[in-house]
Amino acid sequence: ALGMAPFFVVYIFLSFMFLLNLSVGVIVDKFMDLKAQGKSLMLTSAQQKWLMSKKKLFARSTFFNLTNLHRLPPHRRQAYDLISNKHFESAIMAAIIVNTVFMMLKVFPLPTTWWEIVLEATDGIFAFVFTVEFGLKFFALRASYWRDPWNRFDFLCVAVSLFGLILRLVPSLESIGAITSIIRIFRIGRLFRFFEGLNKIFMALVLSIPKLANVLGILLLLLVLFSILGVSLFSTAKPSETLNEHGNFKNIIVAFITLFRASTGEAWNEIMHDLSKSPEDFWRQGTWCAPEDIFDPQDPATWQVLNSKCLIDNPNSCTPYREVHIAVLYWVTYTLIITYMVMNLVVAVILEGYEDGKPDLETEVIDRCIATWKQYDQDQKMILDFPLAVRFINEVVSAVLDNHDDQQDEASRALRKSRTSCLGEDLGSVKMKY
Hints:
Largest sheet: none
Number of helices: 19
Number of strands: 0
Strand content: under 5%
């Protein structure tokens, strides 16, 4: 027996680790080729970059959450400076992490009598902290607060937290107040914006959701088709070890759930083996199955006979078309189409979303411009004197070229070598492309 072990090790390595991943690569590559065919073929590379930069620029709804800071009252300006400070954001992120840790400490049964008191006290403390954060941001930004989706999400969490604390004061509604913690748990999602690596993966998921609609439509259509086919073939099949009340084809709803479960790879081969049993197999197990040719409940006389023997509510027909191995053909076809092709197409869409979510040069330039502008225009008046404007352009171009030395073309390298002289206050010496 041990002598066959190397054979199965090599088989698993070649089939499941190599060929399966190779099929994923082929599907992803074909998907990317189809995507590339949809690009503008009449535009040059430079024109496509220009068009992409325009799309990225106009995709930004706002560049600064507040302008003309010099006109703000002193207290409001101080609040704005506080919420714009990186240390303030870091402190809020730390509070979110600590709050999540305390929410993880809820256990049953309670280890001590004061455990629940401590957890409720920490909930109140963190609810106060996040309420203060909302108050400071809303006081500083006013109507501009609602422009940021993360701010709207924070307000929802704060409102739910306060609502939950109020419900806990009413004994009959205490259980409903505990349910509000479900929404508060999602506050940790703000870490996606704080950590760049997590943000890339999160944005890949977000960008993939609309694109997955078409793939999910194909998946649902195929599942419905296979469910209808499964009910037509196996609705009267005799139950067995795996073909039981949790997985069968008695109606399309249960068949759909069974097939959806099988799409994860769970027990599909065991159901296939149960559906492939012959009358001899059941006889050896000490039971029997009714011949499939007499199992016709559409005929009134046959229905009466089957009903008298309780075979309508509990059918035990033998699997039809066993001579062509219909169960094997059905499940192998289903597994190849759903598990290997459609599911890998989902992987391709998610990978595409990951590629789209990567920070590109256009986004980096826009972010660099915003950060550098804040240094030159601390009051965010949206106006710079001409000498400062040229210095602003010089600094942004220099920073971008320094960060992308390996991606520069010949013109960009020439500009990099002469940027100290050509990007002065005499714009006449600067090439038109810049």
